[in-house]
Amino acid sequence: MRIGFLLLCLLMLAALPAHAADVHRCVGADGGAIFTDKLCADIGASVRPEPAARISGTNSTGRLGTRGCARTADEMRHGLQAALDDHNVNQVAAFYHWPGISGAESEGILKRLQIIANRPLVSVQLIHAREPPDADGFQTVASTQESEAIAVELMQARSGNDPTSVRTTLAVTHYIGCLWIHF
What we know:
Layout: H1 2-15, E1 24-27, E2 33-36, E3 46-47, H2 73-85, H3 89-93, H4 103-118, E4 121-128, E5 149-157, E6 165-175, E7 178-182
């Protein structure tokens, strides 16, 4: 039930137009999160405090404070890295492209994301589009300033006890002015 509610909230947020910036984060009487375009007091809820931004240090990579969506590839990469460092599947799922996904499909996707979130992270790399071959037939990787990210590659250890590397590639899509990941 709780996963379904969180998924519904994520789907509603993903479906919002880019200009819908007045979403309020509230806490209901039962302690559950409520996302609404109304003031929290108008619906009998209290204001949910914004999560504190993590201070960069030796044990942390930093985190996006209040995140609407990743507008750049670097925002997406940094946000995913923070979510994976925290082993937080909900933060990872916030980067997923949910529109058009059925309830049954979403459960499978969340299970796959949970497996990914549980693994120790090594690196998050952006994969950029390749330039077309030149006149001599050579193909080079375009510079990051000239091409857009088409995928994200996650390098992880299989588990804390098994250092075998696991490589996961997630496609990147553009939707409502933001970048999203998907399988």
